[in-house]
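Fold this complex.
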Amino acid sequence: MTEIFGIPIQALLGQLMLGLVNGSFYAMLSLGLAVIFGMLNIINFAHGALYMMGAFLAWMGLEYLGIGYWQALLVAPLMVGIFGIAVERSMLQWLYKLDHLYGLLLTFGLALVLEGLFTNAYGVSGQPYQIPAELSGAFNLGFMFLPKYRAWVIGASLAVCFATWFMIEKTRLGANLRAATENPMLTQAFGINVPLMVMLTYGFGAALAGFAGVLAAPVIQISPLMGSHLIITVFAVVVIGGMGSILGSILTGLGLGVIEGLTRVFYPEASATVVFVIMAIVLMIRPAGLFGKEK
Amino acid sequence: MSRSAHAYLGLLAFGLAAPFFIYPVLVMKILCFALFACAFNLLLGYTGLLSFGHAAFFGTAAYVAGHAIKVWGMPTELGLLTGTLASALLGWAFGSLAIRRQGIYFAMVTLALAQMMYFVFLQAPFTGGEDGLQGVPRGTLLGFIKLADDLNLYYFVLAIFVAAFWLIHRTIHSPFGQILKAIRENEARAISLGYDVAKYKLLAFVLSAALAGLAGATKMLVFKFATLTDAHWHQSGEVVLMTILGGMGTVLGPVVGSTVIVTLQNELADKVGSLVTVIMGAIFMICVLAFRRGIVGESMALYKRMMGLKT
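Structure:
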C-alpha cells in the first residue's frame, strides 16, 4: 500500500474529501454572510440557525409529508428564504441607521429563539436522514472509493457558489446590487428600488444557508445545535478571508476545510482548533484578512 | 452627599441584609454575574468594544482557580488571585489580537478565540472534559474563617463584589475612563488628539478580562465546580444580554440586568425547561428593537423628562 509520511494514501485522500465537504459548507455559509454584510452591513448571527432550519425542514418534509430529498432541495431553501424576508421586513429594517452591532445582537437573539424552539420540539440528540437512492454507494476510482454523496455535495455547492458569483459580478441585477452596496442613496436616485434589493439579498442569503442545510442533512446528525457549532467556525473563516471578495470567501472556505481535514490525519487533537489558530496567525501578519482591503 | 452615593449606600445595606431573607447562594450567584456584567460593561459601555468572547475569561479563571485550590492545595484567596491573573494574561493575548480589527470583526474575533478556548478545555486533561472540575473545597479565609458556611462565604463574596465595583467605578470616573469614553465617541478624534488608542483599548480589555475572571473564579468557589458551561458561547451571549437589558454605559445597569436574568432563570428553569433559551433570545430581540437604553437608561431618561416637565 502506498504511504505518505507514514499515512496510507486512502486514509489521506478520504480525509481530504471530507475536508472538501466541510470546506464547501464553510464556503456557502461565508459567502452568504459576505453577501448579506455587503448589502445590509450586519453580521447575520442567525445564519447557523437558518442552516439548521434548512436541514430540519428537509427532515420534517420527509417525516410528515413524504417529501423526498430532491423536492426538499428546492422547497426548504425557498421556505427559509421567505422566513428570512419576513425577518428582514419585520425587524432588521429598523436597525439599518444604528450601529452595526445591533444587527449582530438582534440576529443572535433570533438564533437563540430558533435553537430553543427546535430543541424544545425535538431534543438535542440528532435525527438521521437517508442519503437519496440515486446518490448512495461509491465510485471506485481505482486508488480510492469516493462516496457519491460527498462528490455531489462538493459539486452542488461549487455550482451554487459559482452561480452566485456570476449573478453578482456579471448580470445586470448584480450590477444594480453592487451599485446599491457602494452608494445606496445615489442608486435610489437612479430609480432602483434599494429597499427591495436589500430585502431580497437577505432572503437570498437565508436561502443559501437553508440550501447548505439540506445538503448537509444526510451527512450529519440533524440537531438544533448543528448551526451554532458551525457558524462560529465560519466567523473565523470570514475573519481569515475578509468579506470584500466573493471568490475570496469561496477559496478561503474550501482551503480551510482541506487544512482541517489534513490536521485530522496528522494531528487529530488540533483539528477542532486549527481554524482559530490560523485566524490568530492571519490577524498577526495581515490584519485585514487574506482577501480584505484595509479601510 | 450626592444622590448616587445615597443609592450605593442603600444597595450596600440591602446587600448586607439580603442573606437573612433571600437564599444566600442565589444572591451570591447574582453578585458573581453582576460583577461579570460590570466588567463587560467597562468594555462595551465605556470603550465601545463588543466582545463576544468574555466567557473565555470567566471560564478560564474558574478552571485555573479550581485547579489551584483543589490540586495544588493553594489557600482560597491565592487560588482566586491565580485564576484572575490567568484571565488577565489571556485577556492580554486575545486583546492584542482582537484590537487589530474594528467593530463587527472585533466581535467575531473574540467569539472565535473564545470558541478555541472552549475546545481546549474540552480536551485538556485537567478540566475533566464533559464532567467538569468537581468538588473544589471552599477552604478558609485568612486561615481561620470557614467558607464552607454559606453566610461566611456570602460576606466574602459581597466584599469581593464591592471592592471590584469600586474599582470599576473609580476607573470610569478617572482621566483614563474619560479617554476610553473619548475613544468610544470618536476614535479618529482620540487618535488625532495624540492618544495611543490601541494601548488604551488593550488596557481596558485586560482590566475587563481580569475582573470577568475574578467573577468566574468566585462563582466556581460558590458552587465548588467549574464546567464547560462557564466557557460556552451561550455564557458570552448572556453577559451581553445582562448588560444591554440593564443599560450599557450606566454604572448600575449591569447589576440590574444580571439580577433580572439570574432571578428569571432561577424561577423558570424547572417550569419551562429548554424554553428558557427561547425566552432569553426573545428578551434579547425586544431589547435591541425597542429598549436599547436598558432598564436603568430608560428610567433615567424618564426621570429627566419628568423633571423637565415640572420646571
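Chain A has eleven helices and four strands.
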